[in-house]
Specification:
The chain has 217 residues and is mainly β. The chain has a single domain, classed as Jelly Rolls (Sandwich). It contains one helix and 17 strands. Strands 2, 3, 6, 8, 9, 10, 11, 12 and 16 form a nine-stranded antiparallel beta sheet that branches. Strands 1, 4, 5, 7, 13, 14, 15 and 17 form an eight-stranded antiparallel beta sheet that branches. A hairpin with a 2-residue loop joins strand 13 and strand 14. The longest helix has 5 residues. The chain is globular and about 40 Å long.
């Protein structure tokens, strides 16, 4: 049985519930770094707004304003990792950033596939400079989706609403998640709502483990 609730901090290196209604976003992991709306703790045009989320509140992002969240997560190099979030993306043209590491080597993105559908992708840049990407099938835009992405060399895995796709990677040096940005900039600015950002320094590799975290709408 899947419990229909927000994720807890068990096994997490970082967790943003996004229920704060404040400039600073608390980390649900004890001692973990908080995040801020926009570039810093001051009120800015690029601050996302609080709206109803998948559980409690979430953040809505406007592409016209380059809304984003800055998270100095200070998690260091991560040869194994899992990213999890709930997202309600608008089906607009272009590829939009949901979550990108400060070194640019890890990216979780959404692309408008049609006026009503989107596709999610998880990309990691390997030690040879080549970008490897796992891409989901098309799913409905303007609806909530559960996304898990994991890195466990030599495999990238991406689950969208419990459906897995994979890609191979030669990692080399591990990517660093010292800094994380939610939402893009310019042409990659995200349009939609994010909720429940969960990060682990271990990789979910099995469907059973992924499905226990997915609560269908």
């Amino acid at each position: 049985t899947v419990a229909c609730a927000a994720p807890d901090a068990t096994g997490a290196a970082g967790l943003l519930h996004l229920d704060d209604n404040a400039q600073t976003l608390a980390n649900g992991v004890a001692g973990g770094a908080s995040a801020t709306l926009g570039a810093d703790a001051t009120v800015e045009v690029a601050d996302p707004g609080f709206v109803a989320g998948r559980f409690g509140s979430g953040l809505t992002f406007s592409p016209n304003e380059g809304d984003h969240v800055s998270w100095p997560a200070a998690l260091g190099m991560m040869p194994d990792l899992t990213l999890e979030l709930w997202v309600r993306p608008d089906a607009i043209a272009g590829t939009r950033d949901l979550l990108v590491s400060g070194d640019g080597r890890v990216a979780l993105q959404v692309t408008g596939a049609s006026p009503t559908t989107v596709q999610f992708s998880f990309s990691v840049t390997g030690g040879n400079g080549q970008v490897r990407t796992a891409t989901s099938a098309q799913v409905t835009g303007n609806a909530w989706h559960h996304v898990i992405a994991s890195l466990d060399e030599p495999t990238l895995r991406l689950w969208v609403d419990g459906v897995r796709v994979e890609a191979a990677i030669n990692l080399g040096d591990a990517p660093a998640l010292d800094a994380i940005r939610l939402g893009g900039a310019g042409g990659t600015s995200f349009s939609g709502t994010l909720d429940e950002i969960w990060i682990a320094q271990t990789a979910i590799t099995a469907d059973e483990a992924a499905l226990t975290r997915y609560c269908p709408m």
